[in-house]
Write a structure and sequence with these properties.
This protein is an alpha+beta fold. The chain contains two helices and five strands; from the N terminus they run ββββαβα. It has a domain of 43 residues. Helix content is 27%, strand content 27%.
Amino acid sequence: MATKKILLTRTAVVKGRHYLPDPDKLYEFDAEIVDELVDKNAGEPVMDLPGTRQENDTDDPDPGLKSNLKKKNR
């Protein structure tokens, strides 16, 4: 089953265990549980962490520019 990460804003009880809200802690639960907690305003879903990027996204400069950069740095 797929899981999702969540930042809890209220105390949640998942499978009989209590989880307290902590601004520095992310919890990972089954996707259905996270969706239910979000619907009940007990948490906020966490998407990709900052600094990650899509596979098709690239920051590589133009090949010609890259060779010029190498020459300048020598």
